[in-house]
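Why do we bother with holo predictions? Because pocket geometry can differ from the apo form. Keep that in mind while you read this record for zinc ion.
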Amino acid sequence: MSPRHVPRTRRICENCNQKCLATLYCEFCVRNYLKAKFSNWTSGNVNIDNLIQKCQSETSRPNVIVEWIPYNSEYQVFNKRWFF
Ligand SMILES: [Zn+2]
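The structure, written out:
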């Protein structure tokens, strides 16, 4: 089923009790999960950290979450698919 066909009615998340739009995940739980990890990573650049945290705080779709990925190069930011 494509996202286009997901009914736009809100449901109550059984985890956080917020009214979420998504049916396969809860956008509030996703944001809370990402916020809880803010202190667990750093890019080494406060401006990049702030940008990524802002993106994560406003994300509503788990498949387009921006994450800091430590790699061989200094700065690597890319979208990562995320499945629950
Ligand atoms: Zn939730």
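Residues 72-84 have pLDDT under 50 and may be disordered.
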